[in-house]
Amino acid sequence: MELLALILIPFLAATALLAFRPAAAAARGLALTSTLLTLAFALWLWYTWTGVAVTGISHDWVPAWGMRFKLGYSGIGLLMILLTGVLFPFIIGTGYKQPTGDPALVNSMLLFSQAALFGVFMAQNAFLFYIFFELSLIPIFFLLLFWGGEHKRAITIRFFLYTLLGGLALLFSIAYVTLQTPLPHSADFSALAALELPMSTQYWLFWTMFLAFAIKMPIFPFHSWQPETYVMAPTQGTMVLSAVMGKMGIYGVVLFLFTIVPEGALHWTNLVLVISLFGALYAAVIAFRQDDFKRLVAYSSMSHMGLMCAALFTWNAYGISGGLYQTFAHGVLMVCLFYIVGMMYQRVGTNDLSAMGGLKTRMPRMALLFMLVVGNAISMPLTQSFVGEWLMFNGLWQLDHWMAVAGVVLIVLGAIYMLYAYQRVLLGPDRQLEVADADDEEHFFLVPLIAITFVVGVFPNIVLHLVDGPVQQLLNSFTSLP
Amino acid sequence: MSALILISVLAVLVLYLGLYNKKSWLAPLGILGLAGAIVLFATGWHIPHHLLAGMLEFDRFSIGFSIGMAAITLLIFLFGPDYYTRMQQHVAEQYALMLFSLVGGFLLSSYTNMLMLFLGIEILSIPLYVLAGAKKNSLRSTEASLKYFLLGSFATAFLLMGIALLYGLAGSFDLGVISAHIAGAGSSDLVLNFALFFVVTGLAFKVGAVPFHFWVPDVYQGAPTLVTTFMATVVKMAAFAGFYRFIDITGMPDALARIMVLLVLATLLVGNVAALRQTNFKRLMAYSSVAHSGFLLLALLTDTGPGSTVGATLLYYTFTYSLATAGLFVLFTIAKRANNGAEHNGIFQGLFAAKPWLALCGLAMFLSLAGIPLTAGFIAKYQVFLLAIGAGWLKVMGFGVLMALLGIYYYIMVARELFVPAEHPTTFVVTPLNGLVISACAIGVLLLGLWPALMAW
Amino acid sequence: MVYLFYLFAAISVIAALVVVAARSPINSAIALVVCLLSIAGHYILLNAQFLAMVHVIVYTGAILVLMLFVIMLLNMNEEVEVRKPLITRILAILTAGLLLLVLLAATRQGLEMSAPESFNPGIGLVKAIGMALFHEFLIPFEVSSVLFLSAMAGAMMLAKKDGTEHVNLPPSSEPKDPAA
Amino acid sequence: MEDVMTAIRVVPLDHYLILCFLLFSIGMAGAMLRRNILIVIMCLELMLNSVNLLLVAFSAYHGDAGGQVMVFFIMLVAAAEVTVGLAILVQLKRNTEGVDINQLNRLKW
Amino acid sequence: MVRTELLAILVPALPLLGVLITGFGRRKLSAYAAGGIASAMVALSFVLSLLLFLGHDGQTHIVHLFNWITVGEMNIPFAFQIDSLSLWMMLVVTGIGSLIHVYSIGYMHDDPRVATFFAQLNLFTFAMLLLVMGANFLVTFIGWEGVGLCSYLLIGFWYKTPEFNYAGRKAFVMNRIGDVGMVLAMALMFLQFGTLNYVGIMDQAGSFAPSNPLLVMATLLLFLGATGKSAQLPLLTWLPDAMAGPTPVSALIHAATMVTAGIFLVVRSSVLFELAPYTQDIILWVGVATALFGATVGLFQNDIKKVLAYSTVSQLGYMFAALGVSAYSAGMFHVTTHAFFKALLFLAAGSVIHALGGEQDIRKMGGLKGVTKTTYVTFLIATLAITGIPPFSGFFSKDGILASTFADSPLAYGVLVFAAMLTAFYMFRLLFLTFFGTYRGTAQPHESPKVITVPLVILAVLSAIGGALNIPHVFGGSEWLKNELATAVEGMVGEHVALSASTEYTLMAISTLLVVITIWYTWTLFGKKTTLDGEPADMPFLKRLIAKRWMLDELYAFLIERPYGWMSRHFFSIAETKVVVPFTIGTGKTTHGFAEWLRKVQTGNTSFYLFGLMLGVVVFLLITYFSA
Known about the structure:
The structure holds five protein chains of five kinds.
Chain A: H1 2-20, H2 24-47, E1 54-62, E2 67-73, H3 75-97, H4 103-122, H5 126-135, H6 137-147, H7 152-180, H8 189-193, H9 199-216, H10 226-232, H11 235-260, H12 262-267, H13 269-288, H14 293-312, H15 317-348, H16 364-377, H17 384-399, H18 401-426, H19 440-458, H20 461-479
Antiparallel strand pairs in A: 1-2
Chain C: H1 2-21, H2 25-45, H3 49-74, H4 86-108, H5 126-134, H6 138-159
Helix pairs in contact in C: 1-2, 2-3
Chain E: H1 2-24, H2 31-54, E1 61-71, E2 74-82, H3 84-108, H4 114-133, H5 137-155, H6 162-193, H7 198-205, H8 213-229, H9 238-241, H10 247-256, H11 261-268, H12 270-274, H13 277-298, H14 304-324, H15 328-355, H16 373-387, H17 393-408, H18 410-435, H19 450-465, H20 480-486, H21 501-527, H22 541-547, H23 552-601, H24 606-627
Antiparallel strand pairs in E: 1-2
Helix pairs in contact in E: 1-2, 1-4, 2-3, 2-4, 3-4, 3-10, 3-15, 3-19, 4-5, 5-6, 5-10, 6-8, 8-11, 8-13, 10-15, 13-14, 13-18, 14-15, 14-17, 14-18, 15-16, 15-17, 15-19, 15-20, 16-18, 16-19, 17-18, 17-21, 18-21
């Protein structure tokens, strides 16, 4: 029942917002309340986690096509649920200080997407997964289309089509594999995982599935929608996109590729590793000389995602656990960073880094917050990112030394661009810009998030123990491969 | 059969009422009759009728399609009184012609003899030729009518040539005999292949498959919106029912499959791509109709014999497509009136601000046409996916997926207009009945999307 | 008798060509009459006397008269039609020629049908047709009444003068495509 | 009816086919070539009649009355079609003072 | 045991507490309060360390706090290792650290962000303690990165000057480059040993044959990490720039503690290095080269702190040279004495700078010995120590290194002695120019307050007598420090200098003599000068090259910085905006173009439609015909 509640609470709240269009304060309050409720539920699930995958609801939908309304979660799913649950109150909270538009509508869109995201992470049926996968896109689409920045129409459409392309390829794959199951067909993940598809099929099926997730994350060279979309999108939209929706890609890789087409995935491992690591380096290099703060963060996000994707394909516990763990860390990080971008934009009126500088004198509190976030971004030990990156490097090393070198170089490049950005925003001589320091509300927003990064950085096991079991299970199934 | 007679008599009755200028009685009478027909069909559900010397057969497929067509016609009739408020003359004729056309649709869904196929198509088409030109003082309407008439007649000529050749080969018009002959003949029998192809041409013309689609945008645009609605929905359903009945007996020989694949590819491509640059809503819907024909043809392509679910898929697809299309055309009429007769996509602007419920209904219908999950359109497309993949048409399906993507693009672009604030103040006048029709369509589309089992048989 | 076939065939083809080629609608109509009459001859050759009769009555008696009537009504007997551009004509003829060629090529393969050994000469008679029509083909016969009704109603509706103003909207009343 | 038998025996079915295809193609060419809508309709009739002839020939060769019944129906339908077509034509003439097919150019793009 | 654990936790916890107090109270605390709290925390830490040290029983204690990272086979505990090595380093860090904290109270009290400064300084102490106390590589790495971050923050403490920020970033990034090696080494060792605990690794390493390629690789990667942190060639250019930070920072971080982390790491993993002679050779020569490099560049520097910075580089080179010849105790000994006298040098220099109101250029100093007496004396003691004049501490520690090197490689010994002469030259040049002659500046020099001079005095004492910690056998000593450390540093077991006592005496005599001659020569050059000649414009090539620090910065700029910036810009402006994005947009545009064309095909001409219809029929017929 908790599972259904996770979907229904935001959905009903969103519907209510849309139907009654309450005034700003009420709309925000309702949205925040509902996200806090879902957070409570998510935490409850986390608290009661016993290490055994849970199936909450299983109801026939269209038996002939293997469609089944089946909700549940494994440890990996729970991690994602937790991520969504934790981040959405903050994303909604962003609207208090950095309003996107009519609060009723904007929050309604956000809540719709939250409901769909919960669905994605709880779906135990490939078809259901796809449905939520696409549904999560629609509210974001409207969010971008109506409250985006420059060139919003063209960029939104490009983003939308690009992601849909992947989605449809995924649908195609789902339809294909469902038909391969014995009669009566079933699209349950358990049934699909039991399939032993011939190699020749797995070769191409891998790509039709991977396309969806590669675009969603995104990794090179499927990323061309990403930087512009992030730049154009309102802060809240960017947050949802980068912090949560990108993670659907990671989740999907584990859920689909590793269980349904493991041999195909194994076969393409090197190629995927090379493109994702190359993409990670490529984005990290680009980020250095970006003048647009938001675009810089966008490229940094892409760089991180590339590393995470590569880590997943290392086929060992460290890489996969690290990659999954990092989804959480990265999600929190992205919300922080984009919030800071938004703060700066509100104050300076532009995202152009060359227009900033020397602000530390005016906003010392902000500088401290930003430094703490930067610490996480450059994966200082005892922050969350470090644990994930360490695990990922370990996984990469176990697979191939040179891949690990390429991965580790990222921490150098990351330090280069993040510190440079920090310097360009805050350091240097005072330029006499009249800006206010971070106020209490903004502290209220950022401090908990930063606290999370430290708590989980010092005690990573509270997240890691979620994924440990499922990852071991995955690895066991790999070892039985020829 | 009784429903067939009922509708025919009903049409005559409506014509008769028209003589007495009882305009306000027409629609209620028609609706009553249609409801009666639906009931009659439904009571015959479990009884397989094999009727009258093998001319018609009312099996589940035909009854399902007939009920679907009658239901959509009913929705259109509900919209009729509002649409015809300003028209004083020939209203009865138009209702009657639609009913006549519907009779043709019934025949097409149930024929078992090529002669009935021919008659069915003609009964379906001839009233449409007239209806397309029903706005007598509009040149566009007349032009649409004439274009439809000319092109349609030529397509009929091809169909007849095909029927004649089939008759020459098999010695009978009966589908069973023809089927047996095709099964016995080698795949290299050129004349047979030509014959099949000619019949397919005639049918493909009706469903608007490329390259026989040229009439579609022009006629959809020129015809009165109500007629366009009828054409896009009931006629399409009927045409596909007829198409299916024919394809079903052929066993899809290689030569036919080859042609069908090309038809599918061309239809998907042209339908979806050409729609990208359309700004006139009716033309857009026309191309959308062509595009959907592509998917439906793909479903047909997989029909290789008994036991397949192609028939059910077609019914589901066409019916839900019709629901969405009908609802959107009603919405379009409302918007068009609010914008002094303009037909471009921008007329929907400001609808969300003025009538949020209607805008959301419109959104649901657009999403359904686009094939976004939780709408019926998605389930429909997914069924086609499953069929095509099951039959091994992977590459064609891959192409279909790409085209579906384009489809989503142009629907979404129009759907976006619903939420854009209007540039200048517009008043949308919605009668309760129209609101009901739109809501019914949208709810139907969502309901069927959430619960596709509603239409399984 | 066999020469009659070729004679009729020649007449029908030539007349058909004249229909297509004649510049005046009247001439076309007259050529069509000739063509249709020659086809009636074929019917008789094929022992379809009843059909031949109906054909003459329906086509030459009804349809063509209707056409001539329309020609007169619309007052276009004097009108000389402008020809289409040469390229269009060439393409049209080429397409039709290709169609013919490919059809003929198919027939060269031959239909697996030889002349029947025993021939029922009665099939073309009124009685035989009537029996078929009212037994086997009763349903189509009845259904065709619907067709006629609808055609009649439709034609009446269109042809009747309403006396309303003819409003011709300008060619393009919709605004420019903003994306173009 | 000996002559009929002769005709069928002596004239191969192929010849009927060829004749019909010829007429069909001519009709088709005419439809594309001519601008006068009336003549286009005539060409249409030509095509229909070629089909009719084919059906009658087949009917004779099969010794089956069905083909002739079909022809009967085709005639009915042709009559109905022409009626409607001419009605539309009259309508067009009222609106545009002409029956040139090129006048149908409002609806495009 | 419980006592050990509690103390071991408290030692790093106190500075962390200091961070929190001074950090959160940075608006409310006065400069003295903040400084006092911070200093007290570190001093308390020192006391506790001392307690631990005194109560130490020579065993290795693991203080297990909690399991940090547990994944699959990996279980990395958050644990401290208490043995003589870590204890010794803790003493050095907290001891020197507390002195410098106290000193900073006086030095920084005028700065508006003094509380922040102390918070960061405390944070540094905390990180450094984690570094030396970690029971496994990963915990050490926390400190490793932590000190890097603190270094970045403190170098850029005066953030308004872009050059300082640049220096901070440079330090951090160069350290990060070293960290690449460190991380990779850890990954390698984890794969090989299945653990990252020092104890576990060192136990298992014995089963490897010497020169095993894996060990060579691991040690090389570790050494790469060490070069970054300890400013060895080629990753040393950040250290001189790091002098941008406040002087206490230079003293604590960039002289006494953080930069010795690399040496600590190598000593910590001495077992591995012992098994990789190839790596040891590299370490030796990198150390020797760095010693020479630092010493040469030091010759022509005019910034008082820069001279000291290059001297630090040079001294670190000595330490690595010692490690390269397995003389771990000598290395550690030099770490200790260096911490004393280099901290003293920096603090004294800071005192001078403070006295001159921020002036750092030695050409604008001179004759200060009369004004700033305490500073002068302490500076002199430190200079004597660093140049290795007996009996000051530097003599003993440097001599240990030189002797060990001579046993291994006379050539290296020769270079190191030469570097020692250079050291003597530039150090005394510095001394003479600063304190002798006549004053050439404009500010009003004055002696610093007690809070500054007291630490100086304490450090001077330590610098003078520090040698007593490890008096070699030839002088009748017992090599106390060596014996103490040997309980923890297993690689030290094989360490003994295979030299006869006479050889050792000779070597000491030679180096001492050469140094004294150099000092005399320096006196002749600078000692009595009242004015300073301008640098001759036509310096010889070599001299110019050295003065420009061997062009190393320019080389990096040319090889790395500029190409990287170029890449960054052009990846974006070419690859991204001209290829990847246009490809996507192009697809859309092509489709739109095609759509437009298809739209126009719909000409509205019925004849054309007919033609299209029939053409379609014909084409399909042809296809059917030809494919039959």
